[in-house]
Each structure stands twice: as structure tokens, then as C-alpha cells.
Amino acid sequence: MDSDRRHPADAAFDDPSGTDARSDPLSWHTHGTLLVVDDDPAVREVMTSLLGRCGFTVLTAHDGRSAMELFRRRADDIRLAFIDFTLPDTDGEAVFRSMRELRPELRAVLCSGSLTDEVVDEKCRAGWATVVRKPFHLVPFLRTIRMALGE
After folding, report:
1. Those residues with Cβ within 8 angstroms of residue 105's Cβ, 6 or more apart along the chain or in another chain
2. pLDDT grade, residue 24 (50/70/90)?
3. What is the CATH number of domain 27-149?
4. Span between the terminal Cα atoms of the chain, in Å
5. Contact in structure between 14 and 141 (CB atoms under 8 Å)
């Protein structure tokens, strides 16, 4: 691989504060299964890489239908779901509601690059654990996960 080219996952390590998060080793390790629902393969790859480094088993789905099929099979195993707001066959809100019908206590994080602060507040009041704005960065992303899991 050309040394001048970066892997897509590397962008998530760039902290907007100007420091490189790789210089501070990841010390938070945990366990469990997370579900990532996003239609963008690069986003799924980055999140799988980051979350896997923390000790998670990561399941992925590219649309609402496949997410629900996977969730029905593994609902008891999933500690947290990351759901993109805009999916090709439905919206993240509908997927979240369907999952909560099966497991009302499910914690879920809404992922979006286009929500206003007012909509973020509304989504959190509606039961989402929190919202992650795309593009995300490693340090704030991991803080969000820890908060959503109560760790």
C-alpha cells in the first residue's frame, strides 16, 4: 500500500483539537456486541475497526430491513445500536422504534451528519441515548459510547 495514502479508518483518529489520538493509546476496553446500521460501507468499516479495538463484537447492517432481521436473531446480545438517520429503505427512527418494540430497554445512538441542535435535543428526549454527528472523531466518539453505555 502506498505510504502516502491513508486508510479510511485513519480519519477517525484525527482529533479536531489538532492532536493525534493515536499518541494516547486506547486504554478503554470493554465487551459486548454492538449493532451498526449505516448504508455507507466506509462508515461501517471505520466503526467496526474502532469498536473492535475497544473489545466489542460488531454486527453490521446496510439498511433497515437487514438490521431488523439481525436484531431479531441477536436482540438479547446487543448492548447498543448505532443507527444512521437516513437509510435507503426507511429512516433510523423507524428502525429504532421497531427494535424498542422487541427490547424496550435497548440503548441506541443516532448517527447523522445533518441534524440541528434542536433536533438532537428532541431525539434524546424521544429515547435515543445520544446523537453522534458525522464525521466523527475518535476521542469524542469513544466518550459518547462510554456515556451511552453508562461506563
Report:
1. none
2. very low
3. 3.40.50.2300
4. 37
5. no
